[in-house]
Specification:
five-stranded mixed beta barrel; OB fold (Dihydrolipoamide Acetyltransferase, E2P); about 25% strand; about 140 residues; alpha+beta
């Protein structure tokens, strides 16, 4: 009788088991319905936003073209942002902290408060539109 090498025997037992395991299924994105007014983005040409009438949230719209609904109240169905992220850092910044008392107190206060608002962009939460339908009601302003 022929003896099998223990390493080969283990491989013969483990290989079929490994082939049977399936990767975990990705969670299905949750479908969300929002209603609000479609507006042109003031900062990006060809980009549109949805301003919710209730709650006042604003979403950057992607996916289905909503150009024909600008200035109208709509109900959209789609998927919201995949995850919420928070970006942060040291307060005050490492530079301000290192200067300790050598910095003008006014400049230190402004720097530790995050500075003054300057030009820049605001990253709105993205909403991927699957379908759009107009609804009754007026958009303000």
């Amino acid at each position: 009788m022929t003896r099998l090498n223990p390493g080969i025997l283990a491989l013969l037992v483990v290989a079929p088991l490994a082939a049977q395991t399936k990767p975990p299924a990705k969670p299905t994105p949750k479908v969300i319905t929002l209603s609000g007014c479609v507006e042109r983005s003031g900062s990006t040409p060809g980009q549109y936003t949805l301003s919710e009438v209730k709650g006042g949230a604003v979403y950057k719209l992607t996916g289905t073209d909503v150009r024909d609904f600008v200035g109208r109240r709509v109900e959209i169905v789609g998927q919201g942002p995949r995850r919420f992220t928070i970006a942060g850092g040291l307060t005050p910044s490492a530079n301000v902290a290192a200067q300790a008392g050598a910095m003008d107190p006014t400049r230190a206060a402004v720097a530790s408060a995050g500075g003054s608002a300057g030009p820049g962009t605001v990253d709105l939460p993205e909403f991927r539109v699957k379908s759009v339908r107009p609804i009754s009601g007026a958009c303000g302003g």
